[in-house]
Specification:
Pfam families: DUF8094. It contains 7 helices and 9 strands, in the order ααααβββββααββαββ. With 355 residues, it is an alpha+beta fold. It has one domain. It has a 9-stranded antiparallel β-sheet, sandwiched between helices. A hairpin with an 8-residue loop joins β1 and β2. The chain is globular, with a radius of gyration of 21 Å.
Length: 355
């Protein structure tokens, strides 16, 4: 295979990875949270407040698609979403077009609001599909303190056919109305009572992304679209690099503290209820590709090319990615066959450098 041919093949494979999520089939549908769980049955945000928060933030973020103002973006996005959206705007500025996967619907299918009144606090929303029928997004809006506004902290595109944990189909309570039937609660990174803590689940999943089926943790996780498509892309790139006498390697690392956790009830009257934790977290990855002697390593996707800019190509290229994943972690009493499952993800390059 010629260098040009395998690069074109790699780009097609890369494009497939960046659009892995299709229309989600939803079921009934945290920086680490407080040390103590407030078991109050009253949420601190009402339906109308959630709608105003969500629509205002999404509107402001989408308005920046035209100006590409990454400084203004900091008013409305934080955490992994700030990193992801900043990169998407940088690519859009270079290509004069923002990727369709950056679209954020402002309609929702479900909202999940914990009852805890402590800070930081988060609201979780599942959006409708986009106008071109891309999958619904799982959005996490976080407020760090009483003096700060909510911002979009995290966004993942849900995988096709996934069943999300069985959260209460929620109409948030007001101060004058009690909410019953086990409301949703904020979890912690080291939350007990699960098959593994949320933080351990993210660390182990990062190892699986890096080592594939050879990871010692692979048997504890269901297979998923991100793992499958990433493996295909890696194999394509590896084949092309080796044909030209080169090497490639990826490393994946959980970004400590970049995690939000939402807990379901511990029991449900619904048959087949999926109980446990929904964990949204950031995994950083670095992809080093080194060409053979007297050869040059080049970007493998349009996004990488845009971030690479006018750098002079060298033998080695390093592409850094931000991966945002949503993991379902079952309760420990869910049975011996219970596994952790990735139900959605977002993966974008954030920097590309010739070395």
């Amino acid at each position: 295979m010629t260098k040009d041919k395998w690069i074109r093949t790699a780009k097609r494979a890369g494009a497939a990875l960046f659009s892995i999520a299709a229309v989600a089939a939803l079921a009934s549908c945290g920086t680490p949270g407080p040390k103590k769980t407030d078991m109050s049955n009253t949420t601190v945000v009402t339906v109308s407040q959630e709608e105003r928060i969500r629509k205002r933030i999404i509107q402001r973020i989408l308005e920046l698609d035209d100006s590409k103002d990454t400084e203004a973006l900091k008013q409305f996005a934080s955490g992994p979403e700030l990193t992801v959206r900043t990169s998407q705007l940088a690519v859009a500025k270079a290509t004069d077009s923002i990727d369709q996967t950056a679209d954020i619907p402002d309609g929702v299918q479900q909202i999940m609001i914990p009852t805890e009144a402590n800070w930081p606090r988060s609201i979780f929303s599942i959006t409708t599909t986009t106008e071109n029928q891309q999958s619904g997004r799982l959005l996490v809006f976080s407020q760090d303190s009483a003096r700060q506004n909510y911002k979009l902290w995290g966004l993942v595109r849900l995988f096709s056919g996934v069943q999300l944990p069985t959260f209460r189909q929620q109409t948030p309570a007001t101060k004058s109305s009690a909410e019953i039937n086990d409301p949703n609660h904020t979890g912690m990174a080291d939350q007990g009572g699960l098959v593994m803590t949320p933080a351990d689940a993210v660390r182990q999943y990062a190892d699986i992304l890096q080592n594939g089926s050879s990871s010692k943790y692979a048997k504890s996780f269901e297979n998923d679209s991100l793992r499958t498509e990433l493996a295909k892309l890696t194999a394509t790139i590896d084949d092309g690099v080796k044909r030209n006498g080169g090497t490639q390697q990826q490393t994946f690392t959980y970004k400590d503290g970049a995690i939000r956790v939402l807990m379901t009830a511990q029991a449900s009257r619904l048959k087949g209820a999926k109980l446990g934790a929904l964990v949204i977290a950031q995994i950083d990855s670095s992809w080093t590709r080194t060409a053979g002697e007297d050869r040059t390593s080049l970007p493998i996707s349009d996004a990488e090319k845009a971030l690479f800019g006018d750098q002079e190509g060298k033998q080695t290229i390093v592409a850094n990615y931000t991966n945002v994943v949503a993991l379902y972690v079952p309760y420990a009493n869910s049975g011996s066959n219970a596994k952790v499952e990735c139900v959605g993800a977002e993966r974008v390059p954030v920097s590309v450098e010739a070395r």
